[in-house]
Amino acid sequence: MRKAIYWLMGEKAGRTIVGTWNWLWGMPIESGGKLAVAVAEDSLQSMQEAVQKLAHAVAMQEGSYKTAKSKYESKVKELQTFEQQAKIAQNGGNPEAAKMAMMRVIQTEQILPKLEEMVLQAEQAVKASKDKLNRERMKLETYKSDMQNMKDMSEVNAALEQIAKVNNEFDIGSAKNDFEKAKSAVERRNLGAQAIAEMSENPQEKLQAEMENMTMDDEVSRRLQMLNDSGPKQLPQ
C-alpha cells in the first residue's frame, strides 16, 4: 500500500498522506508507541531504497565517466597516429599526405582540451557522488542501529507499562484507605450511639435508682449486723 501511494503521489506527498492517514486513525507518532516504531521502519526502508537508487546512479555515472575517459585516451592516440603519419609522409616525399595528416593533427589538438576538461569534470562529479554515497551509507548504518535501539526501547517501555498495569491492578492501598474510612465511620457511629443513649436516659430516674440501691445496701448491711450481734440461737432443752 505504501509503495503504491508513493508511486502514485510521489515519495514526499505519499509520506504526508500516510502520516495523515495514521493520525486520522488516532495513532499519532508522538505517542512513541508501536506506531512510532512502524513509521521509523517505513522511513528506514525508504532511506534504504534511496541509497540503492543513488548507488545505481553513481554506477551509471562512473560508467559514463569511463566511456568519456576512454574516448579521450583514444583521441590522444589518434593525435599521436596522425603526427606519425604526417612525419612519415613528409619524410617519404608525399606532401599531400603529410598535409592531410597534419590537418587531422590540428583538428584533434583543438578538440582534445575540451574533451580533457569534460573528462575532468566527469571525474570530479563521480568522486563527489561516491563521497555522497559513502556518507549516505554511513548514515543509513547509523539509522539501522538507531532502529534496533528504538525497537529495544519500545519493548522495554511496553514491559514497564505492563508492570505498572499489574501494580495498579493489585494495589491494595486504595482498599486500605477504604477500610480505615469504614473503621472510622463505625467508631464515630458508636460514639454517637453512646451519646444518644446517655442523653435519652432520665436523670431523675437514674438518681431514684441510685438512692434505692443505696437504701437496699444499707438495709442489707443492718440486717447482717443484727445477725452478728444476736449470736447463735439456743435450742430448747
From TrEMBL:
Positions of region (Disordered): 217-237
InterPro entries: PspA_VIPP1
Coiled-coil features, chain-numbered ranges: 112-153
Keywords for this protein: Coiled coil
Family according to the record: Belongs to the PspA/Vipp/IM30 family.
Protein name, per record: PspA/IM30 family protein
Annotated organism of origin: Cyanomargarita calcarea GSE-NOS-MK-12-04C
Taxonomic lineage from the root: Bacteria, Bacillati, Cyanobacteriota, Cyanophyceae, Nostocales
